[in-house]
Amino acid sequence: MTRVSSGQTETRKPLANSTVVPLVFLIGAALVAANLRASLTGVGSVLPFIQADTGLSTTAAGILGTLPLLAFAATSPLVRGASRKVGSYRLLVGALMALSVGIVLRSLPGVAWLFAGTVVLAIGIAIGNVLLPAVIRRSVPADRIGRVTGFYVTVMGIVAALASGIAVPFSNLLPGGWRSSLSVWCVLGVIALVYVMFTRFGAESVGKIDTPSVGRVSVWSSKLAWQVSIFMGLQSVAFYALIQWLPSIVAEVGVSSQSAGWQLTVFQVTGLVTSTAVPLLTRGRLDLSAVATVSSLVCAAGLAVMVIFPSMSWLSVVLIGLGGGSCLVLALSFQGLRAPDSDSAASLAGMAQTVGYLLAACGPVALGALRDATGSWHTPLIVMTVLAVLQAVFGAGAGRDRQVVPASDNSRTDVVVPG
Fold it and tell me: Which residue, 289, 295, 141, 143, is CA-closest to 228?
């Protein structure tokens, strides 16, 4: 398969033909993806137990929740350079080791270990977040990138939801309480590590992310890269803000805590539906501008319903979940589709996730502060609705069938890829 970018031709070497992606690769992608959220999503469920046991204040608990996002933002831009030095395979092995060790450290007695372990495991996750789109970009035919990305996003979401659901039961059943409940995810990390080492998932003959086929790409000066990054960031703000504040938002209009919990579950489950369906429905399409725009506007519509008709919160969370699940898989797919080679994909993913997680870390805090300043969630929800409309604008740009260009091409910021 060849693609043209800035007058140069790139020939990729997919794992298989354009029809089939080998099962061994899909299993590897699924195992890596399964570790990219699970060790974090269970923390919120047992946070009251953690606070009771360690004496953490609400502020400190909030910092514990924000710390992984800050670690993602700090680590992501470094991954591309590290992968060029040591190779994507070795770096992925190191990431899974760090993840597993961090999970164990987090469960040791002492508040210091709780925070230190969280940072270590978050660094491992950040590396995996950046490497996986790059590995897929290198190994999978262009017309299958969206489907494979949708597959791993679905696996990631299912395992993350499972981690949230079983955290409290495991805490009650296992000796060691919440520490044991959170530490069990080390097993999944070790399984992924063994599989990656056994199959050399993510490796190629030279053991590194491939050499740029179109010259060194400077993503930070690319208009297209900024569109991809801001789209990633705005959809992250919506997701993390609702994960943190949705129960409080619906409680303000008289929804019971039990019903609020179910609405949060529905929000995540409906997201899994579209993250699975969208890659199948857009199979073979490289121009996804309309899909990104419509998906973002569905999110905006859901938020608008919550503003105008707060008693219809069930409809609201369904709409936001459907739009958000589609936007997540698109945001991750763009990190591969809009890069001319896997080296550029790693660079673009590093930028997108740096911007995205910085916004994700600031968004919930800013919206919470706005709620405190205004006395209700009405104004923060209006702001989120506006951001979702703005997300549609950036999604329209990021969804075009274009790619970032080499830094040496100073005359253009992106290039159309002929069909």
Answer: 289
Instruction: Give the mean pLDDT of 356-378.
Output: 85
Mean pLDDT of the 108-112 span: 90
Two tokens at 63? 């910092």
Of residues 138 and 6, the one with the higher pLDDT is: 138
CB-count burial class (<10 Å; 0-12, 13-18, 19+) for 283: exposed
Rounded CA separation 242/392 (Å): 18
Please provide the size of the chain in residues.
419
Residues 6+ apart with CB under 8 A from 80: 130, 134, 209, 343, 346, 347, 349, 350
Whole-number Å distance between alpha carbons of 267 and 383: 19
Q: List residues bridging with 402 in a β-sheet.
A: 416
Of 153, 133, 155, residue with least CA distance to 334: 133
Residue 343: is its pLDDT beyond 60? yes
Query: Which three-class secondary structure state does DSSP give residue 376?
Result: coil
* φ/ψ (deg, to 5) at 11: -110, 120
Q: What is the dihedral angle through the alpha carbons of 385, 391, 393, 395, rounded to the nearest 10 degrees?
A: -150
Q: Is the dihedral of CA 239, 244, 247, 250 positive or negative?
A: negative
CA distance 410 to 419: 24
Whether the predicted pLDDT of 246 surpasses 90: no
If DSSP codes are grouped into helix, strand and coil, which group holds residue 409? coil
pTM summary value = 0.77
413, 71, 233, 284: CA torsion to nearest 10: 70
Query: pLDDT band for position 96 (50/70/90)?
Result: very high
User: How many whole angstroms separate alpha carbon 130 and alpha carbon 348?
Assistant: 9
Query: Measured on CA atoms in the order 316, 321, 322, 324, is the torsion positive or negative?
Result: positive
Three-state secondary-structure class, residue 204: coil
